[in-house]
Amino acid sequence: MSWPEAITLEGRFVILEPLSVAHQAALVEAAGDGALHRLWYTTVPSPERVGSEIERRQKLQAAGSMLPFAVIERASGIAVGMTTFMNIDAAHRRMEIGSTWYRKAVQRTGINTECKLLLLTHAFEKLDCIVVEFRTHFMNQPSRRAIERLGAKLDGVLRSNQIMPNGTIRDTCVYSIIASEWPAVKANLAWQTERSH
After folding, report:
1. Please, are residues 88 and 95 in contact by the beta-carbon 8 Å criterion?
2. Would you call 39 helix, strand, or coil by DSSP?
3. Mean pLDDT over residues 8-15, rounded?
4. How do the domains of the chain map onto residue ranges?
5. DSSP assignment string, 103-172
6. What mean pLDDT is predicted for residues 69-93?
7. In angstroms, rounded to a whole number, what is the distance separating the alpha carbons of residues 155 and 78?
8. pTM, whole model, 2 decimals?
9. Is the model's pLDDT at 37 over the cut of 80?
C-alpha cells in the first residue's frame, strides 16, 4: 500500500483531484496566464511543457515520492494550477507540500489558503504526520511571505542547494509546521479562508 494513497480533497472553494492528463488542456491555459514560467526564481512549466510536467509528476507518484494534485476552482470546475505532497518519507511520517503554482487570475483569491488547509488537514489528521515542510527559493519573496502567513516557521537556509534551469544557484529556505503546532495553524487558516471569500 502506498502512503499517502491517491485521494480527492474537497473544500468550499476548491477541489484537489489526483493529477491526470484529463487536466492538461485547462492547465496549459492556466500556465499561459501571466507568463509565470518566466519568473527566474521558480519552476512553473511553460504552456508547451505542461504535458511533460504531468508525466514527470506521475512517474514520481509511481515511485512513491510524490502525490500530485490538480487544483480545481469549484465555481468554474476548471483546473487552475497544481500542487503536491512530495519528498514523501513514510517511515518517518513526514512530507513536503510543494511544486505548487496557480494561474495569475486566481492568485491572492484565497484558493492557496484553502488548498493548504485541505492538504495540511489530511497530512496531520488522516496521515498522522509529525512534520510537514515547505521549501522555496531565498529570492522568492511572495512565496516566502505566503508560507509564513500559513504559520510555518523557518528552519533554516540550505545555501547553494540547487542549480536552477537558468544556471543560477538557489539558496533554499526550509520551513515547517510540526504536529503540536497544527491546532493553532488550522484555526488561523480556517479564519483566513472565511475572511478571503
Report:
1. yes
2. coil
3. 96
4. 9-185
5. -GGGTTTTHHHHHHHHHHHIIIIIS--SEEEEEEETT-HHHHHHHHHHT-EEEEEEEEEEE-TTSPEEEE
6. 96
7. 35
8. 0.93
9. no
